[in-house]
Amino acid sequence: MSEQPAIEWHRVARTSEVEEDDPKAVRVGDHLIAIYNVGGTIYATADVCTHEFASLSEGFVEGDVIECPLHAGRFHIPSGKALSPPVTEDLGTYPVKLEGDDIYVGVPID
Ligand code: FES
Shortest CA distance to 13 belongs to which of 29, 34, 31, 30? Predict the structure, then answer.
């Protein structure tokens, strides 16, 4: 038996729509998700900062780090790890798979 939560894959964007340095916000049900292109690899994290309410997809990308547009807290995009104050709580991440040019994100089934 697997301990992994059940997920459902949703097509959210095409790779050509996600520029490096310009994350894309998408929504799947109640999940607000930011899609990133880091050196050609696609990642997905929660779009809402863990500090207060800010949309990370409107933040600033530096390599594999996203900086929150509100108070400049920073997260490691691939792992969601909180890197610098004022953020202390890690960001949720979502599994990503590609089929051709289509980006699918795995969202937990409620
Ligand atoms: S809301 Fe993101 S650092 Fe404050």
Answer: 34
Q: What is the pTM of this model?
A: 0.93
Over the stretch 50-68, which tens digit does the pLDDT of each residue have? 999 999 999 999 999 999 9
pLDDT per residue as tens digits for the range 68-79: 999 999 999 999
Q: In the structure, which protein residues have their CB atom closer than 6 angstroms to any atom of ligand 1?
A: 49, 51-52, 54, 68, 70-71, 73, 86-87
What total number of domains does the chain contain?
1
Tell me the residue range of the domain where 47 lies: 7-108
Q: Which two tokens stand for residue 50?
A: 């863990």
Q: Which atom of ligand 1 is nearest to the CA of 59?
A: 2
